[in-house]
Amino acid sequence: MILPIMTGGKLRRFHCTVNFTTSHSYTEALKAVEGVLEITWEELNTGHWSKVPLAPRQLYTAAAIIKIDILLRSYQQGCGDKTELLQSAMKTADLGILLGAPLSSGDCSMTRVAGLLSHALSMLSSGCISHWPALHLWRDINYLKKVAGARTVPIELGVHYVHPTWSQKLMTVAEFIEAHIVPQTGEATPIGYLAQHPLFEQVPELMSDIFEPEYCCLSDDLGEGAVTEETDINAWFGPKGTVSPLHYDPKHNLLAQVVGEKRILLYHPDQSENLYPYEGSFLNNTAQVDPEEPDYKTFPNYKNIIAWECHLKQGEMLYIPPKWWHHVRSLSTSFSVSFWWT
Ligand SMILES: O=C(O)CCC(=O)C(=O)O
């Protein structure tokens, strides 16, 4: 499930305008706003387009914004078919772009919303990995122990990789499972995470439980003489509570959720200045802001952020485009596989 979180700036007023949805049902609210859109539509389609005054076009935009908000709230509450709700929001945004007018000079919020919605429709896919044997095999830690238990792997220990107490330790997969996966949340401190590790090169037997998605053949550079690099396939295996801090990667990424669930916050690359990347070449793909506890005093631009929240469930796969910022928290014991390609 992906849903937009629009805070700050021009988009904040979307939320202010629709508080009435708390006391009315979404259906009633939708009916009311569709009435406004219909009446305004009549006005916009009477006479020559060049003669249509600004006010009804602005009203159309305002009503479209409210309708989108109601549709996204319905989406969030699980009221209706999720794809249909997003498609309807997308169509409303497109009509708003075609027929409406900015509510103030320089306001391009309709275009922005449409862009965000089109990403939401295309980024998350379910059913793509339902044929992977890993989906049922990896839920069994005894299977993982049997296939990979004796292999030594690097484990990240601590809150996350930019935290001052973070460290790394080598241990076998079996030791890691006993110390960090079997204990219930909170029992094992610090949290251990087998993160970004090419486990499938090390243990080819696990590779036969998954399939590289065909999307990874879609290279950016198909020119003559282009050399296609191998896809980087990494394992991310850990207990509830692992965090990959807010960062971006230069490659296309398909993140497949094989076991458990993750909450992923996503930000378009144009949000970089609101995220305060670390300076210098080492961590400049990592944000200083912690989106889970933003320090607005030190990072005031974060108030203007536009973010997407995605709950990536078992069996789903998320496409993260190059340079898109992402923050990832596991909500349960989790095993994901990432495919990075150029
Ligand atoms: O799953 C995670 O913890 C992080 C995944 C990630 O950052 C990636 O695939 O690029």
From TrEMBL:
PROSITE patterns cross-referenced by the UniProt entry: JMJC
Keyword Nucleus: yes
Gene Ontology BP, a term: methylation
Location of this chain's protein in the cell: Nucleus
Cited Pfam families: Cupin_8
Keywords: Iron, Metal-binding, Methyltransferase, Nucleus, Oxidoreductase, Transferase
Predominant location: nucleus
Residue ranges occupied by any JmjC domain in the UniProt entry: 201-342
Required cofactor names: Fe(2+)
GO molecular function: histone H3K36 demethylase activity; metal ion binding; methyltransferase activity
Cellular component annotations (GO), alphabetically ordered: nucleus
Ranges annotated as spanning the membrane: none
Protein name: Lysine-specific demethylase 8
Native organism: Cryptotermes secundus
Record lineage: Eukaryota, Metazoa, Ecdysozoa, Arthropoda, Hexapoda
Gene: kdm8_3
